[in-house]
Amino acid sequence: MSHLPQSHAPQQRIPATYMRGGTSKGVFFRLDDLPEVARVPGPARDALLMRVIGSPDPYGKQTDGMGGATSSTSKCVIIAPASVPDHDVDYLYGQVSIDSAFVDWSGNCGNLSTAVGPFAIANGFVPAARIPRDGTVAVRVWQANIGKTIIVHVPVRDGQVQETGDFELDGVTFPAAEIVLEFIDPSDDEGEGGEGLQPGMFPTGNLVDDLEVPGVGTLKATMITAGIPTVFVDAAAIGYDGTELQPAINDDKAALARLEAIRVAGALRMGLIKAPEEAATRQHTPKVAFVAPAKDYAASSGKHIAAADIDLNVRAMSMGKLHHAMMGTASVAIATAAAVPGTLVNLAAGGGQRDAVRFGHPSGTLRVGAAVARVDGQWTVTKAVMSRSARVLMEGWVRVP
Questions:
Q1: 187: DSSP letter
Q2: What's one GO MF term for it (predicted)?
Q3: Is the dihedral angle over the CA atoms 294, 207, 384, 325 positive or is it negative?
Q4: How do beta strands 89-96 and 103-104 pair?
């Protein structure tokens, strides 16, 4: 007895580019290349992107999609012509959950911001007249999730994006060309400024707060909105020394639960959510990071990181797990908080005024800078700067059932 195959619709073919940006990678689309139903925000778009990435996957592997089963590799980007004047492109970022069915649109990916510049040039979003034969193009990116400007300085050789080079970025195995990122006015100056909250970089109005965390206790915390809303606590206060690598946290369910409790308490205090239950569908923001004074450690690659070579150690959580390196947006928060005397980040780095820090993370070190000033008694940040790299991994069409 023969079994005739049932008739199912063929897969869709959608033009796409698979790119690494910083220590992340994701699937990049031009808005106009998406099926019509997915060109606007909503369930159809989310369903399509989840299927591209291979989520939700109860096995946690994303085997049947483009995702790499980590928060750093479960990402999609939609690029469109700029919707605001004096910009080249709109950059919309979706953090795709691995094991549950949602796409978080609440924040930016600082790492993938790096790849937006090269993608914009290669896909004709930047006028040819602005692209030198040899030199650098400043691609002006409108980060549509958070309404901020990012300037991506992309090296060009023979009129094409220069991808290869000798710039080394800890957390990325192979060297590439250096791309400098400027995050302009990265703090949430408009602020949601909910009840008892202030607009600006420090939504509680304080550089350090006592944060009551159910089941954990009261912790000193610096809560800042720069790059991405971030809750900083001292490593020592939660039993760590800041040199931890992923297994120390990610293999410890009790530790993950404590860190999530800190995140939820911070989200409530920062006015990002109104009830603890909302945190479940807002995994991407805020971030939780713990800081500690500089100390020697071995990075995940085995490389020795000397205390003398760094100002402080920072470890950050992303999508419920310790990140393998450091998120670009959290790097902006670190740079900004480090530049403001009296924050936990600044104190861990030794205190005082500083316009740049080099911090240790699980994969190595990163140097970040920020320009801050006091205006009318409020701290403001005009820009944060860091170097990363990016390259095209594959281009063509992604197939979607």
A1: B
A2: isomerase activity
A3: positive
A4: antiparallel
Tokens at 391, concatenated: 């390259």
The active-site residue, picked from 109, 201, 223, 319, is: 109
Which one of 66, 223, 327, 386 is the catalytic residue? 327
19 catalytically annotated: no
First to last CA, the chain: 28
CA distance 296 to 117: 35
How far apart CA 54 and CA 379 sit, in angstroms, is 42
pTM of the predicted model as reported, rounded to 2 decimal places: 0.94
Per-residue confidence (pLDDT) for residue 35, from 0 to 100 = 98
Nearest to 313 by CA among 351, 362, 249, 371: 362
Q: What share of the chain is helix, strand, coil (3-state, %, to 5)?
A: 20, 35, 40
Query: What number of H helices and E strands is found in the chain?
Result: 6, 21
21 secondary structure, DSSP code: E
DSSP 299: -
266 Cβ contact list (under 8 Å, min separation 6) = 211, 221, 223, 231, 286, 288
d(C-alpha 123, C-alpha 115), whole Å: 12
pLDDT averaged over 10-residue windows placed end to end, the chain, 401 residues: 79 98 98 98 98 98 98 98 98 97 96 98 98 98 97 98 98 98 86 62 96 98 97 98 98 98 98 95 95 98 98 97 97 98 98 96 98 92 97 98 96
The answer to whether 77 and 108 are in contact (CB under 8 A) is: no
Tokens found for residue 376: 């009318």
**What amino acid occupies position 227?**
G
How does strand 228-234 pair with strand 287-293? Answer: parallel
Q: CA nearest 285: which of 247, 327, 315, 245? A: 327
The pair of structure tokens assigned to 362 is 């699980």
Beta strands of 306-345 (E only): which ranges? 312-318, 321-322
- Judge whether 76 counts as a catalytic residue: no
Q: What H or E segment, with its residue span, contains residue 179?
A: strand 179-184
170 in Cβ contact with 365 (< 8 Å): yes
Is residue 71 a contact partner of residue 323, using CB atoms and an 8 Å limit?
A: yes
